[in-house]
Amino acid sequence: MVLAKRIILLCALLPVILTACESLRASKPIIPLREYERMIAGRLDANYVGTQNCLSACHYHDRIKQDFDASTMGVQMSKKSGMPLVNCESCHGPGSLAIEGITPEKVEEDAKAGKRTECNYKTFIDINNIPAQAKSLICLKCHTANATFNLHNWNAGSHSVNDVACSDCHRIHAGPDLKVKPRDTLDMCYKCHQEAKAEFSLPSHHAVPEKRIFCTDCHDPHGSLTEKLLRKATLKDTCVQCHSDKEGPFVFEHADNNDDCRNCHSPHGSPNNNLLTVPVPFLCLQCHSGHRTDSKATKESKAAFYTRCTDCHSQIHGSDLPSADGTGRFIQ
User: Fold this and answer.
1) Considering only CA atoms, which of 277, 248, 246, 279 is closest in space to residue 264?
2) Is 195 left (phi over 0), alpha (psi -120 to 50) or beta?
3) Which of 215, 237, 216, 217 lies closest to 226 in space, CA to CA?
4) What letter would DSSP give residue 180?
5) How far apart are CA 30 and CA 274, in angstroms?
6) pLDDT digit of tens for each residue in the chain (332 aa)?
C-alpha cells in the first residue's frame, strides 16, 4: 500500500521534474542583454547614447571613426548588418557620462583656444588595465558567433591561458586595415617567442626570417585542438603541406619515425644541415649500429665505419623500391 502511494506520488511529480530540468537546459541570458553589455564593458551607471552623439559632442575621434567605417569590421558592423549595440560603445562601454557637460558652446570655446574638446575617458572601461581575458571577452562577444573567424578554441588555447589578449596583436584603430599581414607576424611573434627567434638565427632554418614562409603557415594563433597551436591534426600533416614528397605512405617506412618529424629535425632552426637535431652519422647511430660499406674497394682500403649514412641511404624518409637484397634499406 505504501509502495503504491509512493509510485502514484512519483508519477504526479514526474512532469514537474521534467519541466524543471528542461528549464535548466534552456539557453537564456541570466540578465537582459543591455545589462549584460554594461557589465562586461562599461559603467553600470551610464547609458548608451550612440556613436553619432559621441562624435557630435566632440570631434576628437572623427579620424578614428572614418578609418573604422572603412575597415572590414566597420562594413560588417554597419546599420545594415542588423547586429545590436555594434559601435564604439560596444567595446568602450556606454558613453553618457563621458560626454556629460560637453555642449556646442564648450566645443566652440575650446576651438577658439586652439585645443580639442575631449570626452571624459575615465568613465569608459579601462581597457589597458583590465585582465587579458577580459580584454579578449570584449572581442569574443561578437567574434565567437562569426563563422569567419576561428575563435571557438581561443579560451582553451595557450595564448589565452598565458594572458595574451586580442589587442596585443591586433590594432583596431591603427587604420582601415585591421588584419595583421603575414609579413608582419614575425616581429609580432618575436615579442614573446624569444627562443624561436634565436633558433631562426641558426645556420639551418626555415625561411621565416627571409619572409618566404610565415609563423601562421604552421600555427593558428587563435587556438587549436593540437599541441603548439598547429593548423593540422598532427605535426606530420603540418610539415607535408610543403614537404609533400615525405608524406607517403611508402612500401618501406622508416619505422615510426615518420609520424613525428621532430625525432630527427628541429622545426625552427638548427646548427646542423637540414634542421637535424644531431649531425649525421650520430643521429642515425642513436638507433642503428654502425657497419662497414660492402664494396671491394673500401674493404681493401679498410674504410672506416662511420661515414655519412645518407650518401647511400638517400631515401631516408621512406621508399617504394627494395634494395639489392630485396629488403628496404632506403637505397635508390
Assistant:
1) 277
2) alpha
3) 237
4) P
5) 56
6) 656 666 666 566 566 555 655 555 555 555 566 655 555 656 778 888 887 777 776 666 777 777 777 777 776 666 665 555 567 887 888 888 888 888 778 878 877 887 877 788 888 888 887 888 888 888 887 777 655 566 878 888 889 889 999 888 888 887 777 778 888 888 899 999 999 999 999 999 999 999 999 999 999 998 888 888 998 988 899 999 999 888 888 888 887 777 889 999 999 999 999 999 999 888 888 888 877 665 554 445 455 556 778 888 888 888 888 777 667 677 76
User: What value, to the nearest 5°, has the Cα angle with vertex 315 and ends 258 and 230?
Assistant: 30
Which amino acid type is present at position 59?
Answer: H
Q: What is the dihedral of CA 170, 173, 177, 181, to 10 degrees?
A: -30
pTM: predicted TM-score of the whole model, two decimal places: 0.73
Contact of 245 with 332, CB cutoff 8 Å: no
Q: Is 239 exposed, middle or buried (0-12, 13-18, 19+ CB in 10 A)?
A: buried
Q: Are 92 and 135 in contact (CB under 8 A)?
A: no
CA distance 283 to 96: 68
Cell of 325: 637484397
Total number of residues shown for the chain: 332
Give SS3 for 205: strand
Contact 219, 159 (CB under 8 A): no
Give the whole-angstrom CA distance, residue 78 versus residue 69.
8
Residue with cell 564648450: 106
